Amino acid sequence: MMKGLVRFDLERGRVVSQKLDTDRRVLGFAGGASSMRYVSRYEEQLLKPGEKLARKPNSSEERK
């Protein structure tokens, strides 16, 4: 059901990045006249050594 690209670091034995997409339509799942469409995207990328992401503080950190 998913299509996409997965990149591996074979020396370290781990995923470097992946991007997976799903776009599927199902007809008749709850009777002859029913129709449902499911669309999703999943992306993941390994950070480089020393690389950090900015993050939003959670509510308990904002109160300090």
Topology at a glance:
Blueprint: E1 3-9, E2 14-27, E3 35-45, H1 59-62
Antiparallel strand pairs: 1-2, 2-3
Instruction: Assess the beta-strand content as a share of residues.
Output: over 45%
* Oligomeric state of the chains present here: single chain
Number of helices: 1
Mind summarizing the main beta sheet?
3 strands, antiparallel
The coarse overall form would be: flat
* Integer count of domains: 1
Order of helices and strands: EEEH
Poorly predicted ranges = none
Question: How widely separated are the two ends?
Answer: 46 Å
Class from secondary-structure proportions = mainly beta
User: What is the percent of helical residues?
Assistant: under 10%
Strand order of the largest sheet: 1-2-3
Radius of gyration: 19 Å
Mean pLDDT: 87
Summarize the structure in words.
The protein has 64 residues and is mainly β. The protein has one domain (3-47). It has one helix spanning 59-62; strands at residues 3-9, 14-27, 35-45. A three-stranded antiparallel β-sheet has the order 1-2-3, with no helix packed on it. The chain is flat and about 55 Å long. The model has no long low-confidence stretch (mean pLDDT 87).
